[in-house]
Amino acid sequence: MGVRLLFDQFSDIQGRIDIGDVRQAGDTPGYDDGVAVVPRRGWAALREEEAERFRPDADTPLSMTIELVSQDLPVFASDDLQARVDAAAALDPLEGRWPHRRLACTASPPGQLTSTEDSTTGHRIGLHVDNFDRLTYSARQNSRRRLCLNLGPGTRYLLVGDRDIKEICRALGCDQDRYYPHTDDLRRYVADGHTLRCLRIRLDPGEGYIAPTEFLPHDGSTAGMREWSLAAFWLG
What we know:
Layout: E1 17-24, E2 37-39, E3 44-45, H1 48-53, E4 67-70, H2 81-90, E5 102-108, E6 146-153, E7 156-161, H3 165-172, H4 183-191, E8 197-203, E9 207-211, E10 218-221, E11 229-235
Antiparallel strand pairs: 1-2, 1-3, 1-8, 4-9, 5-11, 6-9, 6-11, 7-8, 7-10
Helix pairs in contact: 3-4
C-alpha cells in the first residue's frame, strides 16, 4: 500500500511537498554505523500526477493514512523553549480529537538532515519505524497513529518513505505472521538495492501531521532551516 496522503485538491499541497531518493549514511558523521537510511541530495517538487498515486481509495482505513493538520498556537518570544514545552503540555490537540497525554517534545537545531537520535549513543538513526505498540507483521497496520505539531519558531519537515514496512518485509521474505518488523528491515531493504523514494513535507509553526509511524518509514528534518524548532508528539 505505501504512503496514503489525505488531501482534497492538489492546490492544497502544491509547493509544500518534495520527492527524492534515499541512500545509506555511509561515513556521514553522527549516524549509526553508516547503515542509517537518509535522503539523497536533490529534491523535486511533487507533481500532481505523482500526488494522485498517494491518494487513498475508498478501501483505505483512516488508520493507514497521513493527515496534515494545523493548530492555533500562543505568541512566543522567538527563543523561549520552555514556554513552548509548557504550551504543548496544556494543548487540547485538535480540539478534543486527540488524547491529551503528550508523548514527548523534541527540540531540533537547524541544519539536520534527519532529526531523531538514539538516546543511548547520541547518533541519529535516519528513517525508521516506531514500535510503541509492538505489533507483528500480520497486525502491523492496526498500530496507533501519532500526532506531531511543530511549535516553532522554525519550519521543519516530515520525511516519509513511499513503501510501508509490510511491503519491505515481503520483499525480504520476512512476511511471517509472527514476525516483528524493525528499522533494521528498512536498512537491509535499501542495502540490497531495492527502490525507496522519500517525501519531504514542509511543516510551518502551528502545522503538523497525523501518521502511522509504526507502519511507514519516517523521520523529521531541519535541513536548510535557519532556526531551531520544537516538535510535540501525542500517541493516538
